[in-house]
């Protein structure tokens, strides 16, 4: 059963494994090692039910993930309060290409659309979907101030950014509630962001924790999932690792591996 932990000082309690949902809404322009078909509604519903059974309460989506938000709005089981929903703003994906708009009007429109698609009157976490210019976004555009205004209206519970640079992550620690970073045994640079966030009480979510599915040639031993999650969840400041999968068995394996890592960590501290 997935460990549930406080996400920094946000007041949100999140599972140590989150379910990434790009694969339920988009299968073009993605960086996974093998092509895949989008699942039908029954398959998505079954996967979400398994997530709930495993104690996974964190669901990661985005407008740039094709039909992911809309499908979640129709298919997430149980009461809304059972789920901590992370979505994003600033990036759109259409006709095989991403486009970015971080203006106040675009951010407001994106959030209003996400609320409608997800069938909810609030979003737990909204992250700016960076185009790589993290520092410029945080210093010179209206995206984060707009999110904070919408947070003050109760439409968002926590605001932040999904970063692509260490410098951007360190800057985000000063102003964001939550930061999503890249971290795995083959990409360790953002560990300094997690450490800084821990000191500031900022929540840290991890993307690409399983090397975007490129585990077969990772050289991480017989159980590379466990090896990756040990590295990620043992990193000071990390609260949850997002795992994108359509396979219920893979999700169960990730939850079990994370539980083992965290149980070992607790035992070592006693």
Describe this structure in words.
The radius of gyration is 17 Å and the shape is globular. The strands form 3 sheets. It has an 8-stranded parallel beta barrel with strand order 3-4-5-8-9-10-11-12, surrounded by 5 helices. The chain has 270 residues and is α/β, with parallel strands linked by helices. The protein has a single domain, classed as Alpha-Beta Barrel (TIM Barrel), CATH 3.20.20.
Summarize the structure.
With 270 residues, the chain is α/β, with parallel strands linked by helices.
Largest sheet data: 8 strands, parallel, barrel
Low-pLDDT stretches are none
User: What's the CATH H-level superfamily name?
Assistant: NADP-dependent oxidoreductase domain
The count of β-strands is: 12
Topology as a string of helices (H) and strands (E): EEEHEHEEEHEHHEHEHEHEH
Which CATH architecture would you pick?
Alpha-Beta Barrel
What is the typical, i.e. mean, pLDDT?
A: 96
Structural class: alpha/beta
Q: CATH top level?
A: Alpha Beta
Strand order of the largest sheet: 3-4-5-8-9-10-11-12
How many structural units, i.e. domains? 1
């Amino acid at each position: 059963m997935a460990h549930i932990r406080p996400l920094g000082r946000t007041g949100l309690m999140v599972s140590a494994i989150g379910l990434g949902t790009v694969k339920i809404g988009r299968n073009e322009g993605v960086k996974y090692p093998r092509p895949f078909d989008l699942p039908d509604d029954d398959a998505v519903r079954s996967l979400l039910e398994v997530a709930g059974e495993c104690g996974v309460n964190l669901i990661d989506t985005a407008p740039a993930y094709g039909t992911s938000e809309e499908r979640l709005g129709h298919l997430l089981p149980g009461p809304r309060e059972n789920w901590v929903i992370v979505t994003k703003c600033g990036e759109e994906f259409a006709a095989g290409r991403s486009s970015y708009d971080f203006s106040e009007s675009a951010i407001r429109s994106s959030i209003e659309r996400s609320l409608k698609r997800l069938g909810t009157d609030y979003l737990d976490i909204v992250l700016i979907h960076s185009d790589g210019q993290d520092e410029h976004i945080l210093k010179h555009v209206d995206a984060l101030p707009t999110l904070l205004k919408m947070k003050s209206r109760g439409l968002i519970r926590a605001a932040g950014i999904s970063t692509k640079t260490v410098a951007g992550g360190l800057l985000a620690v000063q102003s964001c509630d939550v930061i999503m970073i890249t971290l795995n045994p083959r990409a360790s640079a953002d560990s300094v962001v997690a450490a800084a966030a821990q000191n500031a009480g900022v929540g840290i979510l991890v993307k690409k924790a399983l090397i975007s599915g490129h585990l077969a040639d990772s050289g991480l031993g017989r159980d590379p999932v466990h090896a990756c999650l040990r590295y990620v969840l043992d990193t000071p400041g990390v609260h949850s690792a997002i795992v994108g999968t359509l396979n219920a068995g893979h999700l169960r394996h990730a939850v079990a591996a994370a539980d083992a890592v965290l149980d070992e960590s607790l035992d070592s501290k006693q």
